[in-house]
Amino acid sequence: MILPSPGAATRAYWEAARSGRLLLRRCPQCGQWRHPRETACCADAELEWHVASGQGTLISWTVVRLALNPAFAAQVPYTITLTRTTEGPHIISSLAGDGHALRCGMPMRISFDTVTADVTLPRFTPATERPA
Ligand SMILES: [Zn+2]
User: Fold this and answer.
1) What average pLDDT score do residues 96-122 get?
2) Cα-to-centroid distance, 41 and ligand 1 (Å)
3) Of the residues 42, 95, 98, 113, which has the maximum number of CB atoms within 10 A of its CB?
4) What is the pLDDT of residues 25-37, one digit of tens each?
């Protein structure tokens, strides 16, 4: 499995995930919510971290059945989802399995998958499923 290695720009995001909170960035000047990896919005405005609702809507997904990278061989099939958060930014995450129950427009909610002592992956899952 390939895991993220947080840098200075996203360290707060990954630390919050370890404590079960989803952070998004927000521009203090215009109020626009931004993706965690975005670092700029209005000129001279430094984006701030805020706790997000953890709610969203499924926009799209794709099922991966062939692991082109051997690091993912043990996980196929798995599903990559694109969720529009209630705040606006779109977040890509993954789910185990073939995504047979997914439908565009369905409500999603965040869950947190503790993979190692240092890495917890935020994953959007159907809101109708119980958190893992
Ligand atoms: Zn702005």
Assistant:
1) 94
2) 4
3) 95
4) 999 999 999 999 9
